[in-house]
Amino acid sequence: MIFGLAAALVAAAAAESSASHFRGAAMVPSVSSSGLLTVRTTSFWRKGQAIFDEINPSVAGGSGQLSEVSSIDSSDARFDVLTTTHTYQLPGAGTYQISASGCCRVASGGRANWSESNWTMNSAIVWNGSSAANPIAFNFGSVQPEVSRLSSYSQNLNATSPDGLALSYNQNLNQNINFQPTPSFLVNTSTGLMTIPSSETPLITDNTTLGGQNVGADAAFSGNIVAANGSFVEFDWMFDGVDAQGVNNAPDVADGALANIVGTVFNFTFTASDPDGDPVTFDPGLFAILGPVPAIAPVFNNLTGLLTWDSAGSALGTYIFQVRGRDPGNLTDIGSLTVTLRRPQQGVVPEPASLLVHGGLLACGLLGAVWHRRKA
User: Fold this and answer.
1) How far apart are CA 193 and CA 182, in angstroms?
2) Which of 222, 242, 296, 362 has its CA 20 to 30 A from that of 195?
3) How is residue 331 annotated by DSSP?
4) How far apart are CA 185 and CA 337, in angstroms?
5) What are the start and end residues of each CATH 2.60.40.10 domain in the chain?
6) CA 192 → CA 16, 41, 231, 247, 347, distances in Å?
7) Which segments within 11-93 are labelled E, that is strand?
8) How far apart are CA 90 and CA 87, in angstroms?
9) Architecture in CATH of 252-369
């Protein structure tokens, strides 16, 4: 059975119910084998306002909300991040539509490609009624919204499917986003790589509304991550246009990708740079783990940037381990290590734990590749 879209409610303080605080969000669903639906929402708000705002998803055909856990991350100088986890009980197999809406988007300035009006968010999940389902793993907070007006922009959405489903991407416009940030803005339909050519990044000008309270909310963008079984996650956020001179720019934490057989001990050293020459420090612990749950948790040393993971006992598939770096001005960037575990071949043994990948260079004999993403 397929349940239609349901209206959603946004719980907020009465005085704030129509305030213009919203910058974007994504709702990511998963289901346990018993039908317990978990919706993890990452939403972005004007500084100091997340405490007044909340996204309460509505699930068509599911139970009312069973539980809610919320946390606010105010560490980035540009915006607050509200993470909420809601649970619902599903009655049986089906395709479940999840929706939320509210008022309002932040005041329109800069590129002004959105309306200061209502916003909506949508996602869907397909459940077979008996097995756990985790079609899409996506951490929107790992996306770097900063766009340098002096260079091109390239940033991957870094989604994966713990269920092993093929993912595709589009750049459909969400409600009250009138056009994408620039004419040539592109979301690669196969990889999820978002790009803006250097000829168009100067179009993303500063949002100076409300005396600068909406700093960094310069151009809206949106789209969908779609799993092969019909599950999807809508994403919606805003770019922060900056000049490379005279302002504090966000740091860049380099990404990496490795692949080897189950049982390998992976070592990877995250490196970071800053366009202003500022020092970059890593937050303690991992920022997020996407994909299957590893049998042994990875260990991250925030002083050296070294991540170590013993993959013994973990399931085949793709894992994404994320760490966060920050500059002295509390501008941040997320670095992602993507690890693909393969099935062991006869006569092949895991690589020894002494192998080290450092600064984007592969140690001899390690099956994999390292790549670097330029974020701004």
Assistant:
1) 15
2) 362
3) -
4) 25
5) 252-369
6) 35, 19, 16, 29, 36
7) 22-31, 36-45, 58-59, 67-73, 80-89
8) 10
9) Sandwich (2.60)
